[in-house]
Amino acid sequence: MKNTGAILIAAAILSLLGLFFFWPLALTVKSAFVFNRQWTLAIFRELVQNPLYIEGLLNSLALAIVTTGLVVCMALPLAILAARFDFWGKTWLTGLILLPMILPPFVGVIGIRQILGHYGVINAVLVNLHLMDWSQTVDWLGRGRFWAVAITEALHLYPIFYLNAVAAIANVDPTLEEAAENMGCAGWQRFRRITLPLIMPGLFAGGTLVFIWSFTELGTPLMFDYLRVTAVQIYNGIQDIGDSPLPYALVVVMLVASAGFYALGKGVFGRSGYAMMAKGSTAGSMQQLRGARAGAAFGLFAIVFLLAILPHIGVILTSFSQAWYRSVAPSQWTLEWYRQALGHGLTLPSIRNSCFYALLAMGADLILGVAAAVVIVRSSLHWRGALDTLIMLPLAVPGIVLAFGYITMSQPGRLFEGLNPTDNPTFLLIIAYAVRRLPYVVRAAVAGLQQISVSLEEAAENLGCPPVRTITRITLPLISANLMAGGLLAFSFAMLEVSDSLMLAQKQAYYPITKALFELFQVLGNGPYLAAALGVWSMLFLGITLLLANRLLGQRLGAVFRL
Amino acid sequence: MNLSLQSIVKRFDTVTAVDGVSLEIRDGECFFLLGPSGCGKTTLLRMVAGFCAPDEGRILFNGQPVNDLPPHRRNTGMVFQNYALWPHMTVFDNVAFGLTVPGRTCPAPERRERVGRMLKAMHMEDMARRKPNQLSGGQQQRVALARALVIDPACLLLDEPLSNLDAKLRLEMRVEIRRLVKQLGITTIYVTHDQKEALSMAGRCAILRQGRVEQVGPPRDLYERPANRFVADFIGGANLVPGKVRAVINGLVTIATAFGEWTARDLHGAFQPGAAVALAIRPEALHLRASSGTDLNRFAGRLTETIYLGEATEFWIRMSDGFVIKALESGPGIPGGPALPAAAAPAVEIPFHVNPDDVIVLAAE
Fold first, then answer.
1. B70, A477: Cβ pair inside 8 Å?
2. How close, in Å, is residue B55 to chain A by CA atoms?
3. By residue range, what is the domain housing residue B286?
4. How many Cβ atoms are within 10 Å of B295's Cβ, its own excluded?
5. Nearest to A462 among B77, B82, B102 (CB)
6. Of B187, B206, B226, which one is at a domain's C-terminal end?
């Protein structure tokens, strides 16, 4: 492609990123260091001396470590099974275990509380077995609720790691392993010495995403009332953002930590991956499992799947139950909550709002994503690699940090005062959703472009087709599956986005689904039931979109979730 | 259309892919660019198509400079090495594509007629509704050719079009492409690394090495009168024997080599006694049986290898100084000569002689 066109496109994308990504972050960082118009470290000194914030930070770190550990333990064996073995039921089991992604974990909290709480399912089972009495029940969520938060997040995030791992293993050229076997190195030895080092970059890529995600997760701890984590402390700090600069410092700490983990995952451990001399043809290396081994593989998948959808089942049952209290299953069923939800001022408008925001964000992502991918893959600009890296950066920045940045830049007296979300958050919400998911769309489009040979486009130009028309007639139709999948992912993640939504939507009329769920859950009486009903609706909605994406992208779904 | 390349230079980073190439390609000519991989031949073709721009030099179509003309306005028809058939279109739509672009759009009935005629010429009329992935390699090749030709391009560009076909199909397509190009009388530039393809199809051929033109001419000239050692070796694989000119008498040159004195016809009249030269001798020019005639160029060496090739047999003969010279004999064994059982071969002392007309004297470089 012509360089002038590429430079124009790149400049447009970079200026958008500059305005709505780097500028808010820079402003936040500056606000943490400037107090009364003077550069100072006083704010950080205050932060370090406050045991509450230190505890929050340590808790966040511990949550991230435990969650990532749990995720690896759950997903790695599954990934190896899926990439290397064939067994009965594998096709639909591998699809099913991706299901937990369709619901933000914090909605599952409603279900988990029903199951593990004082008057929940587990205690009811124990009482029914005469092992316990209602007067001395155990709160299985635990005192600090740390483990409840970690497990809920792990059950939600393991598919991301799983997809990365499967892609990495499937990419290993089977002849490399056969060569090891040929020299007498087989089984566990072969895995440890050949396979594991080869797939390490892929595992680190997935692990880093999970780590940053759980380190900065806002919704789940909030719903569990586990308030001493940095994300929640930042959220609670928005109210007095005008008076106290402490939240700025917290955000900066979180930003630096996340960016550091990202750099670590990408630079030190991840590298760029090893180039395989040949693509692995999985057909040849797929081993058929039979009998007890097949049963064990099936069982492992089934157990993880059942565990992962337990919270969702809890939500569904809650939404249909008249009362669910001191019993294994709801004692009376009803559609009352759905009827009430239909009429409630929070539910339907929030669905409408979310669809509107998510559609516009998806549209923006598709346009920017395709343009960026064309420059990255097809232009000869020397710094197109740098452009690629810059566009991927939103992955390293937690939603809560970016949302905080938007609030900062729209404070009275700032450049973007007019966008202040207290009046109307529509524009900032769309921008937030779009910026955060742009990397996924770009990756999907880049993957598509790399798969189609340049000569397909050259052939069209050679026959007299002008460049722009070549893109619409040849390039776009050929990568349409990738674009649809990338767009669907951008859309469903925008629908699921928690931290941006909770922080930016401050007026009921503009609430997206997640914020409405959170507010409903707080309402005493029928609130949690209405939240459950709304949760079921969004589950259905997102389940269908993700299923479509999986259909369109197949095995390549993993490529979208890589760093 | 006649095509003129003037002092073309193209660099990629630090590598000079094309280094001052000038070529004149005449109207209706089938011109070949031949050379080993990395010699710049594909880059040259892509510059003619407009996919990359020369750093220096000019490209002229019928005398008009086209350096700044984008690919879609050059009216060339290109067949890509991987065919580049669009997988989301049928065979018909692929071929019809060039008739649906601005400036070349024609009404649907005419389009159907032209595409149909072209597919018929390629024996592909039954495949019009298929998708490219339902075709064999040879069929894809025909579609790619039809797609390039249906637009009546000013010149046809072929980038190693036969390299993805199996040996038998390659021979068939060679004949077919030659017939088509001749019949249409279209100016054609054909890029290949396969010397047999070039020798059998080319009107004229340019031999390229490391971005430079080594020699231009009809196939017979290149084979019989190579301009230098590279051309002699690249086409037909000659034995290159180093030597020194001893005398030039009556149009005959005598050359001293490490294993004896050679006599060659002096074509260029350019060699002075004492000059260092290289002799290029084609393997098939070595005669392995005693025959009447002159006593010139008679030698003997030890047989070290016998390589059976089917229609011919190759013999490796080690001379007294260790130089290995290769001989090629058609037909089984050596007619009229001693039988050569494989086991006894290495011990056999084998005589041969070469006609002075078949000894090519080249500068030593």
1. no
2. 15
3. 238-363
4. 7
5. B77
6. B226
The tally of CA atoms less than 13 A away on the side-chain side of residue B129 is 1
* Domains held by chain B: number: 2
Residue A410: helix, strand or coil by DSSP?
Answer: coil
* B216 and B78 share one domain: yes
SS (H, E, C) B6-59: EEEEEEECCEEEEEEEEEEECCCCEEEEECCCCCCHHHHHHHHHCCCCCCEEEE
Domain boundary residue among B226, B256, B276?
B226
B132 shares contact with chain A (CB less than 8 Å): no
* Option in A456, A461, A469 nearest B71 (CB): A461
In a domain, B13, yes or no: yes
Angle of helix A246-263 relative to helix A42-49, nearest 10 degrees, comes to 90
In degrees, rounded to 5, the angle at the alpha carbon of residue A175 between the alpha carbons of residues A173 and A178 is 130
Let me know whether B209 and B321 are in one domain: no
- Chain A environment of B71 (Cβ under 8 Å): 458, 461-462
Are residues B164 and B276 both part of a single domain?
A: no
Q: Which residues from A are below 8 Å from B75, CB to CB?
A: 464
Give the DSSP H or E segment for B351: strand B349-353
Rounded to whole angstroms, the Cα distance separating A415 from B153 reads 58
Provide the whole-model pTM. 0.75
Rounded to a whole number of angstroms, the distance from the CA of B102 to the nearest CA of chain A is 7
Q: Does A478 touch chain B (CB under 8 A)?
A: yes
Residue length, chain B?
Answer: 365
Q: Which of A463, A468, A476, A480 to mutate to test the interface with B (most CBs of B within 10 A)?
A: A463
- Inter-chain touch B72–A474, beta carbons under 8 Å: no
Same domain flag for B222 and B243:
no
Nearest residue in A to B50, CA atom: A462
- Does B291 lie in the same domain as B213? no
Interface test with A, best of B12, B55, B97 (most A CBs within 10 A): B97
B325 domain-assigned: yes
Residue B243 and residue B221 share a domain = no
- Digit-by-digit pLDDT tens for chain A (563 residues) are 567 888 898 999 999 999 889 988 888 888 888 777 777 777 778 788 888 888 888 999 999 999 999 999 999 989 888 888 888 888 788 878 877 776 667 778 888 877 877 777 777 778 777 777 777 777 766 666 888 888 888 988 888 888 888 888 877 777 677 777 777 677 777 788 878 888 887 788 888 888 888 898 888 888 888 888 888 888 888 777 767 778 888 888 888 888 888 888 777 665 545 555 444 444 445 778 888 888 888 888 899 888 888 888 888 888 888 777 667 677 777 777 788 777 777 788 888 888 899 999 999 999 999 999 989 888 888 888 888 888 888 887 888 888 888 888 887 777 777 777 777 888 888 999 999 889 888 988 888 888 888 899 999 999 989 888 898 899 988 888 778 878 887 888 888 888 888 888 888 888 888 888 888 888 777 777 888 888 888 888 777 876 776 676 665 555 555 43
Is the Cβ of A412 closer than 8 Å to some Cβ of chain B?
no
Q: 3-class secondary structure for A456-477?
A: HHHHHHHCCCCHHHHHHHHHHH
Residue B233 inside a domain? The answer is no
Cα distance between residue B198 and residue B33, in whole Å: 8
